[in-house]
Amino acid sequence: MNEILINNVEKVFKTPGGNVVALKDINLTIKEGEFVCLLGPSGCGKSTLLNAVAGFQPPSAGEIVIEGKKILAPGPDRGMVFQEYALFPWMTVGQNIAFGLEIQKKEKAEIDLTVNQLLDLLHLKDFRDRFPKDLSGGMRQRVAIARVLALDSPIMLMDEPFGALDALTRRNLQDELLRIWEKLGKTILFVTHSIEESIYLADRIVVMTYRPGTVKRDQYVDMPRPRDPSSAAFNDLKRELGRLVMEEQQRHANDELKLAAVD
Amino acid sequence: MQKLKDFAHGALVPVLLLLLWEAGSRFGLFSAVLLPSPTAVAIKWWAYLLPMQPQEAGQSTLAWMLSGELLHDAYSSLYRVIAGFIIGAGLALPLGLLMGASPRIYDLFNPLMQILRPIPPIAYIPLAILWFGLGNPPSFFLIAIGAFFPVLMNTIAGVRQVDGIFLRAARNLGVNQWTMFTRVILPAATPYILAGVRIGIGTAFIVVIVSEMIAVNDGLGFRILEAREFMWSDKIIAGMITIGLLGLAIDTAVSRLNNHLLRWHRGLEH
Q1: Which residues contact B195 (CB under 8 A, 6 or more apart)?
Q2: Packing angle between helix B136-160 and helix B125-132, nearest 10 degrees?
Q3: Backbone angles phi, psi at A205, to 5 degrees
Q4: Does B173 touch chain A (CB under 8 A)?
Q5: A80 at B interface, C-beta within 8 A
Q6: Residue where a domain stops, chosen among A136, A152, A168
Q7: pLDDT tens digit string along B21-57?
């Protein structure tokens, strides 16, 4: 079972101004094949939680367990897509996608086959030999998704992957991601601060509080896909989640104003 | 047509200067011994380029054509630059990678490097002669020192500025330390390293001319010093022009290499 078990996770950052509790009492079980969005304002610890699952920053207390193993380090079983794309600019599109497989010492023919399939899947066929600098943001993020898919990891972690894209490209990639998710059955943990994006995509939305980051609402989305953002049900949920997120956003804003006053 | 115009525009100042110089010489404004006319320099340069001996029996025409003093000198200088540079950069690159990647190694070597770095390569000349005698070895030594520090400092800086996001992405893909170094850190640092290479080659080229004035009996640096002893100022200037042309050729070659290796890099025309 590729469940992600998050047990009593706490994360404390030591800063010159004192300790900051970024995450507190997080308990979540993410089921295999589930599409889960972590939603909240900046500073709510959603990226911190994602990084803990990725293994970049292990929690200060509690544990994250996948397939019976405690997560202590990053690994290709949990491919991550970053907001900044993080493509290797010195590699072509094809080389970027192939890199994870080369590390695993796969046969060249097998790598080629996989890369070609992924180029097809993400409509990147004509860009195989281009460098990332020649691609638009949307295309870059397609390559980043393909690079993670090449690992064939059961879990995909996505850190505001579409945050830097314009609205149309964003919707386009959201649809692509849903198509891929339905086809390949990945478990996806997706960080966003866009309420609409979370409702459009997720099976389940975890709304987080601002400092310390805790679970404010664990909301299942029971709407058939493709979801219509103009429908009544969509907007009822959007209003409800918007209220929750704005409460936290307000606390975040107050905190910032306080800090500014101290300065 | 536009290219021709650009060329004419760029050639305007040099040509005007040459004309003034030539006119000045013809009217006897400058002493022919101290500042010979451009035509005299050009004639000397041509003679310097041509073979000194008639073609011998059994010598191929190409070998004969390339047997001129200028080509021999240019080859000798270039050989020293390349050999010295390879030694210097070959030592600087691995050390720089290690110092950039590991703070402990950096702390170990940095004090020594900071003391040695301000010493100009020329200050090593007495030691170079004592240690290596005459001939090519002291040149290699001096050039290697000249090339070492620019490559070292840039390599350290290059490794240190590698964006953390690449390291995170690579760790996520499951790379081990060695692959991280060879496939991620090294390529990410290449823009800096190549900038160091370009500076290092430039320094090597300065040092080669100086080093040839002390310990060898060929090369462009030796030739212009030799010409001074005979008061051949036309040959001195001809030699200097050759140094300029060779330097330009080296820099163009390095810059081409740069553009090729960094074709993935933003902000580069290619």
Answers
A1: B154
A2: 120
A3: -120, 125
A4: yes
A5: yes
A6: A152
A7: 999 999 988 888 889 999 999 999 999 998 888 888 8
Q: Which residues contact B202 (CB under 8 A, 6 or more apart)?
A: B247, B251
| Contact: A86, B165; criterion CB under 8 Å | yes
CB contact under 8 A, B264 and A90: yes
For residue A138, how many C-alpha atoms fall within 13 Å in the half-sphere facing its CB?
Answer: 16
The ipTM estimated for the assembled molecules is: 0.90
CA distance A22 to chain B (A): 20
Q: Is residue A158 domain-shared with residue A143, that is, in the same domain?
A: no
Q: Which of B111, B92, B39 is nearest to B199 (CA)?
A: B92
- B153-182 pLDDT, tens digit each: 999 999 999 999 999 999 999 999 999 999
Residues A92, B231: Cα–Cα separation, whole Å:
59
Instruction: Count Cβ atoms below 10 Å from residue A148 Cβ, excluding itself.
Output: 28
Domains of chain B (ranges; CATH) run: 67-261 (1.10.3720.10)
Domain count, chain A: 2
Q: Evaluate whether B239 touches B224 at the Cβ level (below 8 Å).
A: yes
